[in-house]
Amino acid sequence: MDKRVADELIRGLTDLFGNASSVHVYGQKARAAVDRARREVGQLTGARQNEIVFVSGGTEANNLAIRGVCEASIPHGRHIVTSAIEHPSVAGVCDSLEKRGWEVSRVPVSEKGIVRIADVREAIRPDTVLITVMLANNEIGTIQPISEISKLVRKRREAGHQNLRLHTDAVQAAGRIDLNVDHLGCDLLSISGHKIYAPKGVGALYVRRGVRLAPQNIGGHQERERRGGTENVPAIMAFGEAAKISREELVVRTEHVRRLRDQFESEVQKRIEDVVLNGDRDARLPHLTNFSFRYIEGEGLLINLDLQGVAVSTGSACSSGTLEPSPVIRALGRDDELARGSIRFSFGKDNTDDDVDYVVEILADAVARLRELSPLNKQFVTSQTP
Amino acid sequence: MVYSTTFKDHLAHPRNVGELSDATVVAEETNPICGDRLRLSLAIDGERIKAAKYLAYGCPPTLVSGSVLTELLVGKTISEALVITRSELIELVGGLPSRKHHAASLALETLGAALRQASEV
Description:
- The complex is a heterodimer.
- Chain A is of the alpha/beta class.
- Chain A has 2 domains: 3-248, Type I PLP-dependent aspartate aminotransferase-like (Major domain) (Aspartate Aminotransferase, domain 2, 3-Layer(aba) Sandwich), CATH 3.40.640.10; 250-374, Aspartate Aminotransferase, domain 1, CATH 3.90.1150.
- Chain A has helices at residues 3-14, 25-45, 58-72, 88-99, 117-123, 146-158, 181-184, 233-248, 250-271, 298-306, 327-331, 336-340, 353-373, and strands at 52-55, 79-83, 103-107, 128-132, 165-169, 188-192, 203-207, 275-277, 288-293, 317-319, 322-324, 342-346.
- Chain A has a 7-stranded mixed sheet with strand order 1-7-6-5-4-2-3, with helices on both faces. In chain A, strands 8-9-12 form a 3-stranded antiparallel sheet. Chain A has a two-stranded antiparallel ribbon with strand order 10-11.
- In chain A, helix 1 packs antiparallel against helix 8 (233-248) and helix 9 packs parallel to helix 13.
- Chain A is globular and about 70 Å long.
- By secondary structure, chain B is an alpha+beta fold.
- Chain B has one domain: Sufe protein. Chain: A (Alpha-Beta Complex), CATH 3.90.1010.
- Chain B is globular, with a radius of gyration of 13 Å.
- At the A-B interface, helix 10, helix 12 and helix 13 of A face helix 1, strand 1, strand 2, strand 3 and helix 5 of B.
């Protein structure tokens, strides 16, 4: 966490202990701090202050957006359009609504991991109430054409399809690229604090003025009746500070991580054979890259790197003897071996050139060791047992 | 669950990697559901296992189970190797979460296949 953000969190824990919904002076001081944070998050997204709903993070923001719009739109239809590479907090909500009678169209992506506008256009029906497509993918970083999709939505609305809404999960994109809701043209947008160096457990949903939303947390008047529950004042204050810094330092941070990422990619491709870059080289977030390493499995590589102090992630999991290869990598048309061997590397503002050199060194070593162990890259003269 | 020191040591430094050039038997088994694969070669002199090597593809518990199994096998007789249990292997790797027990099962299935071959030699 950024030191300036941590300071704001501590100020919220020590100085501003009042309940922001209370009318006494302690409560009103906390309220003022929450409102300041709301302005900052609003500025990060180009939203008005009263269009920001504070929640507990990206998952809740996505749940509130999708369930909230769908439940409020029942008289107009029960059809959702989404993509094949959504985060589980979107895909899971869509699956859950499907079990409750909604219909869901999941548009595929190209082999580079980008939704095609023509597929979205074809998927929209007269009873579609929501399109939910992420702004940038969390595993491969590909940026989806949200402003193009919003043009489709606008055309449909002009043609009389008034109740069609566009939501985008911008959790991974926040602090990395422009998040202006008017440039994007979305009606709802989810962000999470911890992705912009704020604490975990806080996030926000942007809800464009006029969009009807059925609240999911009922029993409190907080957040203009859209999210009941006492506000987590210190976390919200820290989130506001992180949003401010993120906006002010966007260009510097972006250039820094892009340079490190590009240097890392180039070294990996020079040093390691049989690697496949997942995603698109151009339309993607600046801080992230995803490689599949042939002949080896991602989790083994992940733990090997972890043992040497490097934290990466893999979208695949082998659990109870059931393989769950990353749905995102599979959606790119990759085979199971590549889907199992995929690893996401992301770079942050505090990473250095030395970090890149170190990671490349231990990565090349770990890949070589795991390949030495793998039967997949060897030709055997002996026969296998039946 | 956090993996044990033994587990991490075997993952970082797997023992007996490769294939014996003078193997008496070689067996390879695949978990048909998750695709994990283990290949075991044993050099057997009479009743006793003189050397063991392995190759593996799959999640870390599969890689580690193979490594621990090869260490365990060297010096054992075929009869002793036949009675190694899954819980014994899991204990030797320093414990595994229940969702990863299939890795130890794969190692023992491969051992079973190798020993069946040995009995036919």
